[in-house]
Amino acid sequence: MANKIFDKETLLDLTVNFVPLFIILFFVGVFAVLNPWGGLGDFLSIVAQGLLIIPFIALAILTYISGKAIAGDEKTKTVFPPGQATVPGTPPLTHDEDDGETAELEGDSTAEHADEPAAVESGEPAVVESDETAEEDGETAQIEATESTDGDGDRSA
Amino acid sequence: MAAVNGELALTVLMGLLLVGVAAWLARVENWRSYTPLGSGGVYGGETGQAHHEKPSGLTRWLTTVDHKDIGIMYGLYGVIAFLIGGAMVMVMRAELLDPGATLISNTFYNSLLTSHGITMLFLFGTPIIAAFSNYFIPLLIGADDMAFPRINAIAFWLLPPGALLIWAGFFPIPNLIPAQTAWTMYTPLSAGVGGGNQANAGVDLMLLGLHLTGVSATMGSINFIATIITERAEEVTWANLDIFSWTILTQSGLILFAFPLLGSALLMLVLDRNFGTTFFVNDAGGAILWQHLFWFFGHPEVYILVLPPMGIVSLLIPRFSGRRLFGFKFVVYSTLAIGVLSFGVWAHHMFATGIDPRLRASFMAVSMAIAIPSAVKTFNWMTTMWNGKLRLTTPMLFCIGFVQNFIIGGITGVFLASIPVDLVLHDTYYVVGHFHFIVMGAIAFAGFAAMYYWFPLVSGRMYQRTLGKAHFWLWIVGSNITFFAMVLLGYGGMPRRYATYLPQFATLHQIASLGAFLMVIGGLIWLYNFVVSYFEGPVVTDGDPWNLKEYNLYTGEWEWFDRKLKTTITDGGDEEVATDGGLHGPVGAETADATDSDDSGRAMDANDE
Ligand code: HEM
Ligand SMILES: [Cu+2]
């Protein structure tokens, strides 16, 4: 079971925590081998090693637990984009997207967009930041905002 | 006989009183039940209209247990504290314009210094984060409210008395002076021993006020842990919990372990000061004991303050880059890693105290290790923006500013974590520059990014974009001028926490004050913008003001907002729309008082491209 959760993808995600773990372990080794202050036996050297080993263990445990919780849910439940699970009609992430979460996958997710409502095409106007606090010349906020939206360079893309 | 009658009458009276209290409590209970629920939930049909059930006026705000109301109160509280803390530091920056003590006395400078730090960290930083987490986490995770709504209210209401106690020394109360201990409250100074004036009761009040804010933060953190773990909607799993909730969960864990320790240490200090205990007496190593206890809390505290802003930035940058967060799970795991490791680095604040070199070396090693997860995040933010469809809206600009400032703040931190470097730079302005790049340049920037981003949701109106951008540019320029000057001052050997200095530091100090002045202008522009826009800004009629749907990045809180708009606005085709159950009147015929034309805003946008 554990092996199924901690497959290659999950371990890859966890590399971010393996790096600090490795750094700490490295210093444990350095202090043990080089022994720069002489005598590993006395109390303060043990404390010094403990100051490395305790965070190491704590981080290892937390990495394991969180990896298990996240990867476990990933494998047993529908995975939506983060924060969007409660939005009705949000398409779940496909396995690929879910694994990589990388830019290319999001870039060409056209297939996924195709079965979405037409909101994308119609460029549904939205109220964006407006220049005016008060509406001028009887224009409604909505109209003004639409103009500002058009001004946004990103729309030209 | 008469006595018996008297007793009987008393009993009856008491009974009546109890019945009255019970009836009153039941009413309070009712108000709670009718609180509009975050996700519609059980009372689905009534959402939106439910505002009518809340008492009106002041009673509503005093009795509310609605997470959104409490979020707003936290926000207001944080903003007020920010203005006060800002005013304090401006007096200090004015004093530092010339080398001598010209404007204020040295002791008053020290009082302001202490209060500025404590105000910004405990009365602005933590509450402004709580504002966003209270308002938005239940909406983001699809919970009806916080797990313990009343504990939530209590936690907030501990804060105003806390602030009054912390500031008490400044009030015109006889024989009470402000604390001058700096925010670190090092003993023996803070123990009130010796010939100084810090045995004054003002210091005790400050310690007790700090204790209250700590209790408040702890209660809040328990609430968030319970809420995020147990109150999530069914479809919100650990695999798709949003990043802001992750950072708040981690932050709450840190608070749970750090703040009770601060509370205990503070009480020990109060006992030392008033009841003759000897926890922190100098000869038994008590001064160093205080530093250990304080920094075991203090270093996690800096991450308590920075993790949620990191979450905000991780949430916002993708929305304005047109794509999902690059390496989302990296960000989650590194957040958790920071959380754990932040408890293993505290003595990097104590390298210069003469603690054993072996211990120093270990703390240096873990401090290096904790820099990795922080650095990973900056790369995630940058790769998310890389080749993205950037929309340089005001919240996005503040997020980018966060990244810029966090990089400088983080890198200066890594240098400080190196023992030989720290022995040179400790207690200089370099340290002040380091942490201001983070607390102002990053944490406050993210806070303002979030305020701009969610302003339409909370107020139902839009702010003025040109003013928002002016605010941003004044801040990014001002903060870099000020804090970079501080870094240079530190290299030059200018010690921190002094009202006076040697003449050779004058120019850099004046430059630092100039930057601070730019930030004040930016802050005033922000204040004007938000106040005016709150009352007169264009009404938001669309539940997607940031056009997130187009990029498939529409999150739960906007969905909630959209539903609220649809259930509240009766006639979508008319401009005469009322929003939010009477909080604002309908949009009447306002006069145009904005001077910036629409075009200039657009031109600015075009330039940004
Ligand atoms: C990248 C990781 C970081 C490292 C390695 C680091 C390292 C350090 C070190 C070694 C000091 C002590 C300097 C001295 O007093 O001589 C210090 C001070 C400080 N740091 Fe950082 N830091 C980091 C990130 C942060 C963050 C994220 C924050 C804030 C949220 C922060 C806030 C502070 C504060 C407030 C102080 C000054 C405390 C005081 O003496 O009043 N640091 N940092
Ligand atoms: Cu630290």
Structure in words:
Chain A: Keywords: Membrane, Transmembrane, Transmembrane helix. Chain A: The chain crosses the membrane at residues 12-34, 46-65. Chain A: Residues 96-109, 129-139 have a biased composition (Acidic residues). The complex is a heterodimer of chains A (157) and B (609). Chain A has 157 residues and is mainly alpha-helical. The model of chain A is unreliable at 98-157 (pLDDT under 50). Chain A has helices at 2-5, 8-34, 43-76, 95-100, 103-107, 110-114, 119-122, 141-151. Chain A contains 8 helices and no strands. Chain A starts with a helix and ends in a 6-residue tail after the last helix. Chain A has 2 domains: 2-76; 79-157, no CATH class. Chain A is rod-shaped. In chain A, α2 packs antiparallel against α3. In chain A, 61% of the residues lie in helices and 0% in strands. By secondary structure, chain B is an all-alpha fold. Chain B has 2 domains: 57-306 and 328-333, Cytochrome C Oxidase, Chain A (Up-down Bundle); 391-609, Cytochrome c oxidase-like, subunit I domain (Cytochrome C Oxidase, Chain A, Up-down Bundle), CATH 1.20.210. Helix content of chain B is 67%, strand content 0%. Chain B contains 18 helices and no strands. Chain B starts with a helix and ends with a helix. At the A-B interface, α2, α3, α5 and α8 of A face α10, α11, α15, α16 and α18 of B. Bound molecules: protoporphyrin IX containing FE (HEM) and copper (II) ion (CU).
